[in-house]
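Case 269 in the screening queue. Each case pairs one protein sequence with one candidate compound; here the compound is D-glutamic acid. For every case the pipeline is the same: read the inputs, emit a complex structure as C-alpha coordinates, and attach any notable structural observations.

Predict complex for case 269.
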Amino acid sequence: MNAIARIGVFDSGVGGLTVLAACMKKLAGCSFYYFGDNAHAPYGNRSEAEITEFVFRGLRRFRRIGVDAAVLACNTATAVCAERARNAFAFPVVGMEPAVRPAAALCRRVLVLATPLTAASRRLERLTASFPDTSFTICGLSGFAGAIERALTCGEPLTISDHLPQGRYDGVVLGCTHYVFFRDEIARFYGCKVFDGGEGTANRLRSLLIQKHKYSLFGTDDHFDPSQNPNICFTKKCKEMRKSRVFFLGNSAKTNKSVFLTNICFKKI
Ligand code: DGL
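Case 269 output:
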Protein backbone atom coordinates (compact mmCIF):
# COMPACT_ATOMS: atom_id res chain seq x y z
CA MET A 1 0.00 0.00 0.00
CA ASN A 2 1.24 3.44 -0.78
CA ALA A 3 -0.54 5.91 1.45
CA ILE A 4 0.25 9.03 3.39
CA ALA A 5 -0.40 8.36 7.04
CA ARG A 6 -2.22 10.96 9.11
CA ILE A 7 -0.82 11.33 12.58
CA GLY A 8 -2.41 13.18 15.50
CA VAL A 9 -0.05 14.48 18.19
CA PHE A 10 -1.59 15.56 21.51
CA ASP A 11 -0.25 17.41 24.54
CA SER A 12 -1.56 19.58 27.35
CA GLY A 13 0.09 22.55 25.64
CA VAL A 14 3.31 23.34 23.82
CA GLY A 15 5.50 20.52 25.20
CA GLY A 16 4.43 17.99 22.59
CA LEU A 17 5.80 20.22 19.83
CA THR A 18 9.21 18.81 20.80
CA VAL A 19 7.84 15.33 20.03
CA LEU A 20 6.14 16.55 16.87
CA ALA A 21 9.54 17.74 15.64
CA ALA A 22 11.09 14.33 16.36
CA CYS A 23 8.21 12.55 14.58
CA MET A 24 8.42 14.84 11.56
CA LYS A 25 12.10 14.03 11.23
CA LYS A 26 11.47 10.28 11.24
CA LEU A 27 8.30 10.29 9.20
CA ALA A 28 8.80 12.66 6.37
CA GLY A 29 5.81 12.62 4.06
CA CYS A 30 3.12 11.98 6.69
CA SER A 31 0.42 14.53 7.52
CA PHE A 32 0.64 15.82 11.08
CA TYR A 33 -2.13 17.29 13.22
CA TYR A 34 -1.00 18.81 16.50
CA PHE A 35 -3.49 19.51 19.24
CA GLY A 36 -2.33 21.43 22.32
CA ASP A 37 -4.90 21.80 25.10
CA ASN A 38 -3.28 24.90 26.56
CA ALA A 39 -6.61 26.20 27.89
CA HIS A 40 -6.31 23.44 30.52
CA ALA A 41 -2.52 23.30 30.94
CA PRO A 42 -0.72 22.32 33.01
CA TYR A 43 -2.19 18.84 33.48
CA GLY A 44 0.35 17.79 36.10
CA ASN A 45 -1.64 19.03 39.08
CA ARG A 46 -5.11 18.02 37.85
CA SER A 47 -7.15 14.98 38.81
CA GLU A 48 -6.88 11.80 36.77
CA ALA A 49 -10.57 12.05 35.83
CA GLU A 50 -10.12 15.56 34.43
CA ILE A 51 -6.99 14.62 32.47
CA THR A 52 -8.71 11.58 31.00
CA GLU A 53 -11.68 13.71 29.93
CA PHE A 54 -9.43 16.30 28.22
CA VAL A 55 -7.31 13.67 26.51
CA PHE A 56 -10.37 11.84 25.24
CA ARG A 57 -11.78 15.08 23.83
CA GLY A 58 -8.53 15.54 21.91
CA LEU A 59 -8.55 11.97 20.67
CA ARG A 60 -12.16 12.33 19.52
CA ARG A 61 -11.01 15.28 17.40
CA PHE A 62 -8.37 13.05 15.86
CA ARG A 63 -11.01 10.40 15.18
CA ARG A 64 -13.08 12.99 13.29
CA ILE A 65 -10.00 13.88 11.22
CA GLY A 66 -9.52 10.18 10.50
CA VAL A 67 -5.98 9.76 11.84
CA ASP A 68 -4.11 6.47 11.34
CA ALA A 69 -2.34 6.81 14.69
CA ALA A 70 -2.18 9.22 17.60
CA VAL A 71 0.75 10.14 19.82
CA LEU A 72 0.16 11.14 23.42
CA ALA A 73 3.11 13.53 23.45
CA CYS A 74 2.62 14.01 27.17
CA ASN A 75 4.16 11.76 29.81
CA THR A 76 1.46 12.75 32.30
CA ALA A 77 -1.43 11.85 29.98
CA THR A 78 0.35 8.61 29.06
CA ALA A 79 0.78 7.64 32.71
CA VAL A 80 -2.85 8.48 33.52
CA CYS A 81 -4.86 7.16 30.58
CA ALA A 82 -2.86 5.64 27.68
CA GLU A 83 -4.22 2.16 28.41
CA ARG A 84 -7.82 3.35 28.54
CA ALA A 85 -7.31 5.35 25.34
CA ARG A 86 -5.96 2.27 23.56
CA ASN A 87 -9.09 0.35 24.51
CA ALA A 88 -11.44 3.17 23.55
CA PHE A 89 -10.15 4.16 20.09
CA ALA A 90 -9.75 2.07 16.97
CA PHE A 91 -6.51 3.77 15.88
CA PRO A 92 -3.23 2.95 17.67
CA VAL A 93 -2.24 5.32 20.48
CA VAL A 94 1.50 5.68 21.06
CA GLY A 95 2.44 6.99 24.49
CA MET A 96 5.59 8.61 25.85
CA GLU A 97 8.10 6.57 27.76
CA PRO A 98 10.63 8.52 29.83
CA ALA A 99 14.07 7.78 28.35
CA VAL A 100 15.10 5.61 31.30
CA ARG A 101 16.37 2.81 29.06
CA PRO A 102 18.98 4.84 27.12
CA ALA A 103 20.00 6.63 30.34
CA ALA A 104 20.52 3.33 32.18
CA ALA A 105 22.66 2.04 29.31
CA LEU A 106 25.16 4.87 29.81
CA CYS A 107 24.84 6.16 33.37
CA ARG A 108 24.94 4.82 36.93
CA ARG A 109 23.34 7.71 38.83
CA VAL A 110 20.31 9.11 37.07
CA LEU A 111 17.89 11.88 38.00
CA VAL A 112 14.40 11.61 36.48
CA LEU A 113 12.54 14.92 36.31
CA ALA A 114 8.79 14.73 35.69
CA THR A 115 5.45 16.16 36.74
CA PRO A 116 4.18 14.92 40.12
CA LEU A 117 1.68 12.56 38.47
CA THR A 118 4.29 10.96 36.21
CA ALA A 119 6.80 10.79 39.06
CA ALA A 120 4.30 8.91 41.24
CA SER A 121 3.14 6.56 38.48
CA ARG A 122 3.44 2.77 38.67
CA ARG A 123 4.57 2.87 35.07
CA LEU A 124 7.72 4.84 35.94
CA GLU A 125 8.30 2.75 39.05
CA ARG A 126 8.20 -0.46 37.00
CA LEU A 127 10.40 1.01 34.28
CA THR A 128 13.16 2.16 36.64
CA ALA A 129 12.98 -1.10 38.62
CA SER A 130 13.88 -3.02 35.48
CA PHE A 131 17.40 -1.49 35.56
CA PRO A 132 18.73 -2.56 38.96
CA ASP A 133 22.34 -1.59 38.17
CA THR A 134 21.42 2.08 37.89
CA SER A 135 20.38 4.21 40.83
CA PHE A 136 17.43 6.46 39.99
CA THR A 137 16.28 9.55 41.87
CA ILE A 138 12.76 10.41 40.75
CA CYS A 139 11.72 13.98 41.31
CA GLY A 140 8.21 15.37 40.73
CA LEU A 141 8.36 19.10 39.93
CA SER A 142 5.02 20.70 40.58
CA GLY A 143 5.44 24.08 38.91
CA PHE A 144 8.00 23.61 36.16
CA ALA A 145 5.80 22.52 33.22
CA GLY A 146 3.31 25.32 33.92
CA ALA A 147 6.11 27.88 34.20
CA ILE A 148 7.54 26.74 30.85
CA GLU A 149 4.11 26.88 29.23
CA ARG A 150 3.60 30.45 30.48
CA ALA A 151 7.13 31.53 29.56
CA LEU A 152 6.78 30.30 25.99
CA THR A 153 3.23 31.43 25.34
CA CYS A 154 2.79 34.53 27.54
CA GLY A 155 6.40 35.70 27.83
CA GLU A 156 6.44 35.23 31.62
CA PRO A 157 10.03 35.32 32.99
CA LEU A 158 11.46 31.92 33.87
CA THR A 159 14.52 31.10 35.97
CA ILE A 160 15.30 27.46 35.32
CA SER A 161 17.45 27.01 38.42
CA ASP A 162 14.48 27.95 40.66
CA HIS A 163 12.80 24.72 39.58
CA LEU A 164 15.63 22.20 39.56
CA PRO A 165 16.74 20.15 42.57
CA GLN A 166 20.46 20.22 43.36
CA GLY A 167 22.52 17.06 43.15
CA ARG A 168 25.30 15.24 41.35
CA TYR A 169 24.25 12.83 38.63
CA ASP A 170 25.76 11.43 35.50
CA GLY A 171 22.49 11.45 33.59
CA VAL A 172 19.18 13.35 33.70
CA VAL A 173 15.98 12.04 32.12
CA LEU A 174 13.47 14.65 31.03
CA GLY A 175 10.19 12.92 31.85
CA CYS A 176 8.01 15.79 30.66
CA THR A 177 7.91 16.98 27.08
CA HIS A 178 7.84 20.63 28.15
CA TYR A 179 11.29 20.34 29.73
CA VAL A 180 12.85 19.48 26.38
CA PHE A 181 12.72 23.12 25.28
CA PHE A 182 15.29 23.76 28.01
CA ARG A 183 17.43 20.68 27.40
CA ASP A 184 20.65 22.69 26.92
CA GLU A 185 20.10 24.80 30.04
CA ILE A 186 19.33 21.68 32.12
CA ALA A 187 22.44 19.91 30.75
CA ARG A 188 24.53 22.93 31.76
CA PHE A 189 22.94 23.08 35.22
CA TYR A 190 23.84 19.44 36.02
CA GLY A 191 26.93 19.22 33.82
CA CYS A 192 25.90 15.81 32.50
CA LYS A 193 24.07 13.99 29.71
CA VAL A 194 20.37 14.65 29.28
CA PHE A 195 17.89 12.19 27.75
CA ASP A 196 14.38 12.65 26.43
CA GLY A 197 11.78 10.32 24.96
CA GLY A 198 11.03 12.18 21.70
CA GLU A 199 13.19 10.12 19.38
CA GLY A 200 12.18 6.79 20.95
CA THR A 201 8.52 7.71 20.52
CA ALA A 202 9.09 8.69 16.90
CA ASN A 203 10.86 5.35 16.29
CA ARG A 204 7.96 3.40 17.83
CA LEU A 205 5.45 5.32 15.74
CA ARG A 206 7.48 4.70 12.62
CA SER A 207 7.82 0.96 13.11
CA LEU A 208 4.17 0.64 14.05
CA LEU A 209 3.08 2.35 10.86
CA ILE A 210 5.45 0.35 8.71
CA GLN A 211 4.88 -3.08 10.25
CA LYS A 212 1.25 -3.04 11.25
CA HIS A 213 -0.19 -0.79 8.61
CA LYS A 214 2.20 -1.34 5.73
CA TYR A 215 2.54 2.32 5.05
CA SER A 216 5.13 3.44 2.66
CA LEU A 217 6.86 6.27 4.43
CA PHE A 218 8.52 8.68 2.14
CA GLY A 219 11.94 9.87 3.10
CA THR A 220 14.55 8.11 5.13
CA ASP A 221 15.61 8.26 8.73
CA ASP A 222 16.55 11.70 9.91
CA HIS A 223 15.44 13.27 6.71
CA PHE A 224 13.52 16.43 7.48
CA ASP A 225 11.35 17.82 4.79
CA PRO A 226 10.83 21.56 5.35
CA SER A 227 7.80 21.54 3.07
CA GLN A 228 5.94 19.48 5.65
CA ASN A 229 3.44 21.78 7.15
CA PRO A 230 1.74 20.43 10.26
CA ASN A 231 -1.73 21.60 11.22
CA ILE A 232 -1.37 23.06 14.69
CA CYS A 233 -4.36 23.74 16.89
CA PHE A 234 -4.46 25.14 20.42
CA THR A 235 -7.44 25.54 22.69
CA LYS A 236 -6.42 29.04 23.82
CA LYS A 237 -4.85 31.86 21.91
CA CYS A 238 -1.78 33.42 23.53
CA LYS A 239 -0.42 36.50 21.92
CA GLU A 240 3.24 35.78 22.60
CA MET A 241 3.03 32.35 21.03
CA ARG A 242 4.09 33.21 17.54
CA LYS A 243 7.14 35.07 18.84
CA SER A 244 8.28 32.44 21.26
CA ARG A 245 10.87 29.79 20.63
CA VAL A 246 8.11 27.22 20.68
CA PHE A 247 7.88 27.35 16.95
CA PHE A 248 11.58 27.19 16.45
CA LEU A 249 11.70 23.89 18.33
CA GLY A 250 15.20 24.70 19.46
CA ASN A 251 17.70 24.04 16.74
CA SER A 252 17.22 20.32 16.90
CA ALA A 253 14.54 20.07 14.24
CA LYS A 254 16.86 21.82 11.76
CA THR A 255 13.81 23.46 10.37
CA ASN A 256 13.08 26.95 9.37
CA LYS A 257 10.63 28.84 11.49
CA SER A 258 8.14 29.51 8.72
CA VAL A 259 7.19 25.83 8.68
CA PHE A 260 5.76 26.12 12.13
CA LEU A 261 4.39 29.62 11.86
CA THR A 262 1.69 28.66 9.39
CA ASN A 263 -1.38 26.51 9.81
CA ILE A 264 -2.00 27.47 13.43
CA CYS A 265 -5.59 27.72 14.59
CA PHE A 266 -7.31 28.12 17.95
CA LYS A 267 -10.42 26.19 18.91
CA LYS A 268 -12.05 25.72 22.27
CA ILE A 269 -13.06 22.22 23.23
N1 DGL B 1 4.06 17.87 28.57
C1 DGL B 1 3.54 17.19 29.70
C2 DGL B 1 4.25 15.95 30.09
O1 DGL B 1 5.02 15.44 29.30
C3 DGL B 1 2.64 17.84 30.56
C4 DGL B 1 2.84 18.67 31.62
C5 DGL B 1 1.64 19.28 32.25
O2 DGL B 1 0.74 19.73 31.53
O3 DGL B 1 1.66 19.30 33.47
O4 DGL B 1 4.08 15.45 31.16
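Case 269 observations:
- Residues 6-96+199-266 form a domain with the Rossmann fold fold (CATH 3.40.50.1860).
- The longest strand covers residues 6-11.
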